[in-house]
Amino acid sequence: TSWTRAMGKQWYQRRVRGAAEEDVPCHLKRPLLPVSRRAHNYALIQQCDMTEEMKAETLEACVTAFDKFPNNNEHVARYLKDLMDKSYGSCWHVISGEGYGFDITHETRNLMYMFIGGNTAIVIWKCS
Fold first, then answer.
1. Are 81 and 89 a contacting pair, CB within 8 Å?
2. Is-above-0.70 flag for pTM?
3. What is the pLDDT of residues 36-78, one digit of tens each?
4. Which among 10, 81, 87, 105 has the fewest CB atoms less than 10 Å away?
């Protein structure tokens, strides 16, 4: 480990001073990966407490909402809330966005937490 630290320091000093790439030991070379968001094109369900039929309909509604309003989380949430209220009665709540935490109380068999389009999370639950 101390040898690796010493070689790493030498490699860094040579790198800063403009040494050739061939001078760097292969075990100290690290690929420079671009910083990018990891986006996927499918819905990733983290937690679901719904019947299979309700789960399938809600998933389809989420994908449709995200396709209709890809850049507006407020419209996605409103669309899903209105659709769930019409289909399964009132008192549905929806959160759509990135980088949030939640702690909710919900009725049993009426919760879905999923990611869609990369980092966008959608939480749908019923609480009366």
1. no
2. no
3. 444 556 889 999 999 999 999 999 999 999 999 988 999 999 9
4. 105
